[in-house]
Amino acid sequence: MTDSLTPLLLAGEGYHTEFKQSLDKSFVEEACAFANSGGGRILLGVSDNGVIKGVDTGNVMRSRVQDTLGQIESRLSCNIEAVGDVLVVKIPEGTEKPYGCSRGFFMRMGANSQKLTRNQIIEFFQKEGRIRFDELSHAKAVYPDDFDPDAFAHFLKLAGISPSIDRDTLLRNLDCLTADNRLTNAGVLFFARDIDFLLNHAIVGCVLYKGNDKVHILDKKDFKANLVDNIDNAMLFIQRHTKLRYKIEHLRREEIPDYPEVALREAVINAVCHRDYFDKRANVLIEVFADRVVITNPGGLPSGLPPEEFGTRSVARNPLIASLLHRIDYIEKIGTGINRIRQAVAEHGGTELDLRYNDFFTAIFRAKVAMEPGGEIGGSIGEQVSEQVSEQVSEQVARVLIACKTQPQSKAELLEAIGLANVYLNYKRHLVPLIEQGIIEMTIPDKPRSRLQKYHLTDKGRALLNKEGGDE
């Protein structure tokens, strides 16, 4: 019967094999190491050089082995088999890592088991998702000094939560405030005044390059606001610096962006939501080239998600962040983001998608060069507004000018005038460029989020309206 052990004995000890002549104190360490690694076999009754010495394989010895394995936390189901005078103890790779015993935590390193240091234990816990960054309280953040009530009010409005509920109670129910009044990391990301100071690595960097290479930078922005604003501002940056195609088949022209906005938005949200916030080496980075948009975040696939199941199964690295984004409909359904990206790219037809993951997750959107007959390339929104001001305004801009002709209008009223829903992205895309071009301006500029905020024409806007015959 020992013939079945011959290949293992000849191969010697390795990553999945350990020889032990007797049941000593180190046995439980080896078992822990296998459970924390890729699993393996301990051959009890075999010397280090692969010579069978034999052990008692009766019930008493098996009970001793089981009792020893019982010291491991979390519980581990192992198989014990007698092969001649050798007990073969099969240790599976655990599903509840990390596993430890009274002697510490151990990992398999080649043919040896190594006790983990404090920092290695912390790193291991982080990697295995046993410590959630978003759930930890933030050491520096002081509540309510660092709290931004405007960001909180904006979140409540998006989530449809009544602002009349006690604020501290709401924050605790959202897991953004601990029982001892400390902001969690999720609370900082969503509701802090100064992300740059508290979580510098959580800012979102956006870069526009000239051409297709990382040589000449044309525009660069680092967004340091709360997580929701960072997502919206990053999307606005992409929209301003990518192109539209115009297709005219009927009386109205159809705008076709080079890249599907749904896919880009899902990719930006994915990068911000699922990045590894324990990794402080890099920020979420969005790069816009002439032929592609590249969105990169620290952290590859989360632990527990095999590459072959990517896109078919959800394992959230930051479940609290994902839950908060789901509350405000930034995530339609947790775990569907990658499929939505792929579907949007397929429906768009003018973009190629390349997803890569190692220590970083990267989504690359490449624009196809070919253009449909009758189409023309339009510039970014900011460029379009400039052209409209110098030549002739579009119907959409004209409607905004006319709406503001007699009295200031709210954001909702202006968006309604141009036939769009009152959502933040429409405001960013269709009204902010007019503000930046000096055509309309806020009535309360020092409080941009005021519920009383309205917009009126500037002298430049009124002159443009007069030019278009709006005062006739």
Features:
six-stranded mixed sheet, alpha+beta, 17 helices, 472 residues, four-stranded mixed sheet
Strand percentage lies at 15-25%
Indicate the low-confidence ranges by residue numbers.
370-392
Determine the number of helices (DSSP H or I, runs of at least 4 residues): 17
The N- to C-terminal Cα distance equals 103 Å
Largest sheet: 6 strands, mixed
Total strands: the figure is 18
Overall helicity: 25-40%
Backbone CA Rg: 30 Å
- Specify the overall morphology: elongated
Q: Order of strands side by side in the largest beta sheet?
A: 9-8-12-13-15-14
Mean pLDDT, all residues: 85
Structural class of the helix and strand makeup?
Answer: alpha+beta
Question: Topology of this protein?
Answer:
Elements: H1 6-11, E1 17-20, H2 27-36, E2 40-44, H3 59-69, E3 79-83, E4 86-91, E5 100-101, E6 104-109, E7 112-115, H4 118-127, H5 149-159, H6 167-173, H7 185-191, H8 195-198, E8 204-209, E9 217-223, H9 227-240, E10 244-248, E11 253-257, H10 261-274, E12 284-288, E13 292-298, H11 319-327, H12 337-348, E14 351-357, E15 360-367, E16 376-378, H13 381-390, H14 395-403, H15 411-417, H16 424-436, E17 440-442, E18 455-457, H17 459-467
Parallel strand pairs: 1-2, 8-12
Antiparallel strand pairs: 2-4, 3-4, 5-6, 6-7, 8-9, 10-11, 10-16, 12-13, 13-15, 14-15, 17-18
